[in-house]
Structure formats: C-alpha cells, structure tokens
Specification:
By secondary structure, the protein is of the alpha+beta class. Helix content is 36%, strand content 18%. The strands form 5 sheets. Strands 1, 2, 6, 7, 8, 9 and 20 form a 7-stranded mixed β-sheet that branches. Strands 14-15-16-17-13-18 form a 6-stranded antiparallel β-sheet, with no helix packed on it.
Length: 622
C-alpha cells in the first residue's frame, strides 16, 4: 500500500480557486497537498486571457489586500492594463488586465513550488474518505488514500464534464483534458443536492491571418496601474487589443447551424451564464440587432494565438469557421480550435456555511465553479477564503468571514449561501449595496489589517497601509487649512464655468465642487502643489474621494451599522421554524433549509420578508 503522511489540508484541483486555497493555507503554516489531474495546467486560463473587469477587478484587489497571490501574478504577467469606468464615480472604477496566458500559469506554478509547505500529486481524485460525518482525506483513481485534517474541493468544470460541438459530444473537463468521475456520485449518496450548469468558450485563431487594419485599436492606459498594493513591476510597453463586429452575413451562416445546436435542440440541460451568452444565443435573443461587438485579444507577448471574445459558440466547427471569415478583418482567418460548450456538475451553495464549509460533512469545503459561480476572480476569492478557514479549523482558531459592508468577497459568499444560484453567478457592482465603501482603491485599508492579524498579510503590507492612512490624513488636513484668495483662483474657476469666489476660502471647499479636480487645482495654485508634494498619488486620491463623496460615505456607513446590529442577533442551534405559525410558509421552508446563523443572514434569504424578520426578532428576544 502506498503510504503518505497525513496532511493538514488536501486541495483537489489546481485552477484559480485551488491555487489560492493551497497558497493561503500553506503560507499560514499548514502542510498542504495540491492534487490535480495535470500539473502542466496549473492555473490555466481556460477562457479569456484576462483578469479583472467591472466588480471583478475589485475582487482581485481584495484578494491582494488579504495576502493572496492573484494580483501579484497578474502584475508580473500582464500585457495590457486598463482602468474601466474612469468617466463614472470611483465606486465604478474597475481595473482589468490582459494577461500572457502561458506566463500566468507558469508564474502560479513557480509561486506554489516556492512555498515549502506545498506538496503536489498528479492524479484524478475519485472519492472522499468520510468518517463520523467528517472528511478525513481523499482516494485517487489508483486507489491511493491520502489522509488529511481538512479537504477543499475546487473541481471547476471537471465533475462529469461533457463537451459539446454541434451534434458531437464527449467527456472532458476542458479541451483535450478528461473529466472527473466519482465525487458527485459519492456526495449525492451522502445527501447533497447536485445540479448541472453550462459554460462555453470561443474559437482561437492565428493572429498572423488577421487583418488588423480593418479593426478598431483598443490600447491600454497611457499610465498603466497595477493590481497589487506591493511594488510589483509597472508595464513599460503594452500590446493592443482590437474591436470588430459581426454582421448580417455572419448571423445568416450561424442560423444555418441552429438545427445542429446542442443548446437549441435540448441536448444541453445545464443553464449557462446569462451575462456572457454564446454568439448564437445573442443573435437569437437580440434578433433586432444587426451586429455584435467582437474583441480580439492576444494570448501573450510571443504567441500568435488570439482569443475571439464575444464569439463563444457550440455550433458545428464548419459553421463557426465559415461565420468567422465573414467578420471584418477575419476574411483569411485560420482557426486553431473551435469553440465549444461544456456541461458540468455543481452543488447549490445553500448547502454551505458562511466559511464555504459544507453543512452535511465537517472539514470539507467547496470553492469555485463547483459552487455555481463563473469567472477566475470569483473562484480565486472563494479558494482564498476556504484555505484560510481550513487553517483556522486546524489551528483551533475562530472562523474568518467578511461582511457585505467589508468586501465584495463578503457579498459574493453571502449571496451564494443565502440565495443560491440557478445560473452561473457572476459579480457585478450592482450586487453590492455598499459599493461606495467597497472601492478598488481602498481594499488595502479595509482588509489588510484583518489579514495581518491572521498572519497572512506581511508586516510590509501593514506598514504600507498605515503610511497610506497617515498620508491621507495629512492631505486632508492640508486642504482643510489651505486658504485660497479670489484673485488667485477666479481665472481658473471662470475657465471651468464654476462660480467665482468673493472672499478667501479653503481649498477643501473648492474641491467639493463638481468638475474641480485636485491636480488641476494644484496646477493653478503652485503653493498648494508644494504643500502636497510630500504625499503620493494614492493618498491624494483617497483624500479627494473622502471630500467629494463625504455625504454618500456617511449614509452607507450608517446603513451598514444598522445591518451589523441584526448580525448581533445570534441564532443558536437548529430552530424548528415549522413550529412558528406567524412565519410565512415560504419563510419557514427557506429558513429550515438554510438554517441561518444570525438574524441578519435570515433577512437576506430570498423569500424571507421584513415581517418574517420581525417575527424572528420577537422569538429571539423571548
């Protein structure tokens, strides 16, 4: 019998969730085994070669602030950076980077290999070792048993994965990789509810065969930023992306394949992501539109392979090829591989606690697409939280959770465990009711002190946060006391179509005006520029946001405080909600299923009304 020492944690799967889980737990001191079917595809970007985006960029910055690795690795391997939504308020600013797909995966693998506490095993995990309703290890396809105190499952799209291209389908967890069997069946036997979901990916093409002169150029930012709050390298050169469009000829060819579409013919049972539909779904649902946007994204610095963002498809490969060649710039396109759809098993996340541990089996956590989410960023943050909480369990320390007013990560997990999801869950800024508090620029201020207390964020990170706080306070104080004479500023205000002043005022009052920015004000007032000279760009940005959005920030802080008061109402043990006739029938059913731990959590369960919350509050007070 093959023998191994007992590990503190076994992570099954080495995608974005698995990598963050393994790194976090090992950096906190656990002995970790990372088990994957293929060591050559660690942290593979299965879909588009990019990190971040609207709300997703906020998550990556939160992962970084907590001491995770995704932001650092993105900074080291990106080929373009853009801050999205700069024309909107700071709550909407969202960093996004194009990554070098091969370098990204390589950097993750080297990072994990550089952590002494991480061991690796390449083989399919086909079952779990369960004793006394607790997970104590895993069993592999070879029959090898690895024992551990905790286990995190991050199986992505591999559980009974089925790939569809036209009328053809075959088992697989990703292109050219086999699927995983056994875990779903065992968990269902244990009483878990399982479901099916679907996602897809577009064809990849040879960039040498494209005519970029027929496309719109999409360059990165002139002064690119980065994801990590540490001193990661800044981009000095960038690769452009390109934009082109489908047309009626493209749509006509795609419609020819509808009779062989696995989606339209009912061969795909799982629900796909509503906000990232396939191209055939787009032209079917939005028949009134004569074109759809296509983003041409390079896969790296050196490779010629390009990702055709916006052309996800499971139609027959010949239909995809003919339709592609009708797109402007794609007339001579050579396809590396066709797009495909993939169906896979997931487990409705209402079966989890707020640490992502399963309710039915102790010491077993689920993270990533196995919980019904979509996206690298959503997966990575779940893996990070699962890895942290596996460490907390082994070390006998309190669970680590984040509230909805503390992080997008907290919003994501709270949504999943209380509302569940019937389609692949994707994060949006609109899901966060406190999004003015949860900006990408202040993730370090919000989360690094908590991560440092855990032992995951370094002393260097905490020192940087304290310096940023001190510098921000100094900038605010400078603006509060800096006096501005009418003769010095009125020409500037007139040029901005802003009312002139007639008596001396403070700089902070001018900054509260719409359209008046600190950089412009400092340029008009050299003495102010000199006074602000010792303080960096980040501190000045923080100060401006606090000044301009003071009223909104205060309002959200008050709302968050009211919600925190509901969290103080603890619900101990399993309550018999069926014995509370004053509750609505739906509320009794949902509360019995989810078993919330606090009144605040109960209030966020779909189907539980404010009246039901009032009934519960009376019961708990009693």
């Amino acid at each position: 019998m093959f023998q191994q020492e007992e590990y503190d944690l076994i992570v099954v799967g080495a995608g974005h969730a698995g990598c963050e889980a393994a790194a976090a737990a090992a950096n906190l001191g656990l002995r970790v085994l990372l088990a994957t079917m293929n060591l050559n595809t660690i942290a593979q970007m299965s879909c588009n070669p990019a990190m971040g985006g609207v709300a997703k960029g906020q998550i990556v910055r939160e992962i970084d602030a907590l001491g995770g690795q995704s932001g650092i690795i993105t900074d080291r391997t990106m080929i373009q950076f853009r801050m999205l939504n700069r024309s909107k308020g700071p709550a909407m600013w969202s960093p996004r980077a194009q990554s070098d797909r091969m370098r990204f995966a390589e950097a993750w693998r080297l990072t994990l290999e550089g952590i002494a506490n991480v061991d690796f095993w390449q083989e399919a995990v086909t079952g779990l070792l369960i004793e006394n309703d607790a997970c104590v290890g895993v069993r592999t396809a070879l029959g090898i048993e690895f024992r551990a105190k905790t286990v995190v499952l991050t199986n992505g799209t591999f559980l009974n994965g089925l790939i569809h291209i036209g009328e053809k389908n075959f088992g697989g967890g990703r292109a050219a990789e086999k699927n995983s069997r056994g875990i779903t069946e065992q968990l269902v036997e244990l009483g878990f509810e399982a479901g099916r979901m679907k996602t897809g990916t577009p064809p990849r093409v040879d960039g040498r065969s494209l005519d970029y002169s027929k496309m719109e150029v999409q360059d990165g930012d002139q002064h690119p930023s980065r994801f990590s709050y540490l001193d990661t390298p800044r981009l000095t050169q960038q690769r452009p992306c390109y934009i082109t469009y489908t047309n009626e000829r493209v749509h006509s060819i795609l419609r020819e394949g509808f009779e062989k579409s696995p989606m339209f013919q009912g061969r795909i049972k799982g629900l796909g992501p509503r906000y990232c539909p396939s191209v055939e779904d787009k032209i079917n649902r939005f028949a009134d539109k004569d074109r759809h946007q296509i983003f041409v994204e390079p896969e790296g610095w050196s490779t010629v392979e390009c990702y055709v963002n916006g052309f996800s498809s499971s139609l027959p490969e010949d239909v995809q090829y003919r339709a592609l060649r009708e797109i402007a710039g794609f007339e001579k396109a050579k396809m590396f591989r066709p797009g495909y759809a993939i169906e896979y098993d997931f487990f409705p996340p209402t079966q989890l606690t707020n640490t992502l541990e399963t309710k039915l089996v102790r010491n077993l956590w689920l993270a990533g697409q196995i919980n019904g989410t979509t996206g690298y960023e959503e997966a990575a943050c779940q893996g990070l939280m699962a890895g942290i909480n596996a460490h907390q369990r082994v070390a006998g320390k309190p669970a680590f959770t984040l509230g909805r007013d503390e992080a997008y990560i907290g919003v994501l997990i709270d949504d999943l465990i209380n509302k569940g999801t019937e389609e692949p869950y994707r994060m949006f800024t609109s899901r966060a009711e406190h999004r003015i508090l949860l900006r990408q620029d202040n993730a370090d201020l919000r989360l690094t002190p908590r991560a440092h207390a855990l032992g995951l964020a370094s002393d260097e990170r905490l020192t940087r946060v304290r310096q940023k706080e001190a510098d921000t306070a100094a900038v605010l104080a400078t603006l509060e006391k800096f006096g501005v004479e009418p003769t010095a500023i009125n020409p500037f205000l007139a040029a901005k179509n802003s009312a002139e002043i007639h008596e001396k005022t403070r700089a902070v009052n001018l900054l509260r005006r719409p359209g008046v920015e600190l950089a412009e004000l400092a340029a008009a007032l050299p003495a102010l520029a000199e006074a602000l000279g010792p303080y960096g760009e980040e501190a000045q940005e923080q100060a401006v946001i606090q000044i301009k959005y003071e009223t909104y920030l205060l309002k959200e802080q008050q709302q968050a405080q009211r919600m925190r008061e509901l969290e103080d109402f603890r619900i101990s043990g399993r309550l018999n909600y069926q014995a509370m006739p004053a509750l609505s029938h739906e509320a009794r059913e949902k509360l019995l299923k989810i078993q919330p731990e606090t009144l605040g959590q109960a209030s966020r369960i779909s189907g539980v009304s404010p009246a039901d919350v009032s009934v519960l509050m009376v019961y708990l007070n009693r």
